[in-house]
Specification:
The complex is a heterodimer of chains A (390) and B (243). By secondary structure, chain A is mainly alpha-helical. Chain A is built from 17 helices and 4 strands. In chain B, helix 3 packs across helix 4, helix 3 runs parallel beside helix 5 and helix 8 packs across helix 9. Classes of the chains: A mainly alpha (390), B alpha/beta (243).
């Protein structure tokens, strides 16, 4: 036990003095929250612009359809004259869409024919989709309104032409809509636990071998497994610091960015939730350090270790990426997958859903078990003589 | 005291060490001389337990190293070919780490460190971080941490390799001083001059096996030569890999 402490203390001191390594680790811990924050702000402000601003519609030939123009104006659309060369203007993106009302509109309209209007738009331009959709909805609304009036005038019920009436019942609350984006969050958290530990792990395994200090170290009268345990533990504080920093950053972003104003949602990432997530992720710190320790001990140089470890960090985060695209319901079997169980539970914690204690216990135990197996494999590796001579 | 009986070790098909036996007494410098690749370092590594012998036994102060490797390791100090020190730790921190791993208590460790810092003339670098140390300074740190626990047996793998003339002289004086303190010293070398100048007993190793052993006089008598260098070449059969 005393030797584990001696090794832990030396490795921690050594790593803390390696400022560049842990600064890199901590910086990558901030990267995720900042990126997500910027994304949310951009998404929030663009959605808000499109929904709240008055719609401005350039119209060519507004004098041909005073009724339509009046209808549009009553729907908060600001009618402006179209630019002279409106097709080029749309192509260049100067205006999103132009409504063209031909001269024949009035005649066709009075004689109960389908009166034609043209929408000039550029369908390859994603940013105009919402504007175009709103104009189309308004025009269809006007068309349907006039059509129904004409049927009523002829003594026919408007329901005759509505074979199917579609009512949309949207079950997505504003919070669950934004959650789609925020479901990236568990991915970042797990990823950061891995990247926080990796510079330290590389230095104490492959680095020790590269600097030719491993052989003198292992000649000391201490069982080799003690070195594995001591070194493994010394990666924990750095991994935990990265985890804490990421959680604090996420917490600050969700409290500073006015998500409620932007997206109409309130994210529950209060201090208690953050602490719960931190505690839930502690077994992942063990797992991330153990698997990286095992892989880095196989490598001969720090450069070689540096190419492998980022891939290790990606693998456990893949199920989390799936979570961002598919809705996965928690069940007991999924809790057996280390890192994936935690990601599902983090998601539930953020949604303030009730969480089964059994799930927490199962995911914690499964993660600790797998981490212990990796540690044991690393010990086997260190007890072989070719840890030094190969 | 170190006693080696019929140690053998193969790496794949290569038989690196075959039936090597010798003993090294306290208060003597025992030299393993042989060309590069003769199996000297492999023999030493088996004695300090980082390589397991395929067959044979070795005793350190009558402790069987295969059965009690940890006890055996606490009775030896090793300056191996790998002499990396921790760049971000100071000289004291480097030495203290190994002293603690040797299980020394704090007071003994601090006293012993001061003793070593004076003995090796390294007080001026005691609290400097090792980054930027010269080869000679690094070597001193490596020696100090190897013998911080004041072991009875000291193993040195090519101790003067890569040192300049001044450092080589200092190293030789230091080895003699340890011998005069009654330590059992085993060193390897491919330099005939060095072995001739330092050793009380010489084990000549060639192709993984002991070709001859004895005091310098015994070796001269056996080969009927009047200087050791000619005797070595006679026994090994070639000058290749020697210096």
């Amino acid at each position: 036990m005393k030797n584990i402490w001696v090794i832990f203390r030396k490795e921690t001191l050594d790593s803390i003095r390696d400022t560049r390594s842990w600064m890199t680790g901590l910086f990558s811990a901030m990267f995720g929250p900042i990126m997500l924050g910027v994304l949310l702000v951009l998404l929030g402000s663009s959605t808000q612009d499109d929904l709240n601003n008055h719609l401005t519609l350039p119209v060519q030939g507004s004098e041909h359809a005073p009724g339509l123009i009046q209808f549009l104006t009553s729907q908060d659309v600001i009618i402006v004259p179209a630019p002279a060369d409106f097709e080029t203007a749309v192509k260049l993106g100067d205006v999103d869409v132009v409504l063209v009302i031909p001269e024949e509109f009035g005649g066709e309209f009075s004689s109960n024919k389908s009166a034609t209007v043209q929408l000039v738009l550029d369908s390859s331009r994603q940013s105009t989709v919402i504007v175009v959709l709103r104009i189309q909805t308004l025009l269809e609304g006007y068309s349907s309104y006039i059509g129904k009036l004409r049927l009523i005038v002829r003594g026919v019920s408007p329901e005759v032409i509505e074979a199917i009436a579609i009512e949309e019942i949207d079950t997505a609350t504003p919070q669950s809509q934004a959650m789609l984006l925020i479901s990236m969050l568990p991915y970042f958290i797990i990823f950061v636990i891995f990247t926080g530990a990796s510079p330290i792990i590389i230095d104490i395994t492959a680095g020790e071998r590269e600097r030719k200090s491993l052989e003198p170290l292992l000649i000391n009268p201490v069982p080799h497994k003690i070195f594995v345990v001591g070194k493994l533990l010394s990666a924990f504080p750095f991994s935990m610091a990265s985890l804490a920093l990421t959680l604090i950053s996420f917490g600050m972003i969700f409290n500073i960015v006015p998500l409620e104003k932007f997206l109409g949602i309130q994210i529950s990432l209060n201090v208690i939730t953050l602490i719960e997530i931190f505690l839930l992720c502690l077994p992942v710190v063990f797992l991330a350090s153990a698997i990286q320790m095992l892989v880095a001990s196989f490598t001969r140089t720090t450069k070689e270790a540096g190419t492998y470890l980022p891939f290790i960090a990606l693998i456990p985060s893949l199920p989390g990426l799936l979570l961002a695209f598919f809705s996965v319901k928690s069940n007991l079997w999924l809790m057996l997958i280390p890192t994936f169980g935690q990601q599902l539970l983090i998601n539930q914690m953020m949604r303030q859903e009730p969480i089964s204690i059994l799930y927490i216990v199962v995911t914690v135990l499964a993660t600790i078990l797998v981490a212990t197996i990796f540690t044991w494999l690393a010990i086997l590796l260190y007890e072989r003589e070719n840890i030094l001579f190969r | 005291m170190i006693k080696v009986e019929q140690l053998s070790k193969s790496f794949g098909k290569i038989r690196a060490v075959q039936d090597v036996s010798f003993s090294a007494l306290d208060g003597q410098i025992t030299g393993l001389l042989g060309p590069n690749g003769a199996g000297k370092s492999t023999t030493l590594r088996m004695i300090y337990t980082l390589l397991k012998p395929d067959s044979g036994v070795a005793y350190i102060d009558e402790i069987d190293i295969s059965q009690f490797p940890i006890e055996a390791r606490s009775r030896i100090g090793v300056l191996s070919d790998a002499q990396g020190v921790y760049d971000r730790l100071t000289t004291r921190e480097n030495i203290r780490y190994f002293g603690q791993l040797q299980g020394m208590n704090d007071q003994d460790l601090e006293n012993r460190m001061d003793e070593l810092l004076i003995m090796l003339d390294m007080m001026s670098i005691a609290d400097r971080r090792a980054k930027g140390f010269s080869t000679g300074e690094r070597l001193k740190v490596a020696i100090a941490r190897a013998i911080v626990h004041n072991p009875n047996n000291i193993l040195l793998d090519e101790p003067t390799n890569g040192l300049d003339v001044k450092s080589t002289r200092t190293m030789r004086e230091f080895i003699r001083k340890l011998r005069d303190d009654g330590k059992c010293i085993v060193l390897t070398s491919h330099i005939m001059q060095e072995v001739a100048a330092l050793c009380d007993k010489i084990i000549i190793i060639s192709n993984g096996a002991v070709a001859a052993q004895g005091t310098p006089d015994e070796i001269l008598n056996k080969t009927r030569k009047d200087n050791l260098e000619d005797a070595f070449i006679e026994i090994i059969g070639s000058e290749e890999g020697l210096a």
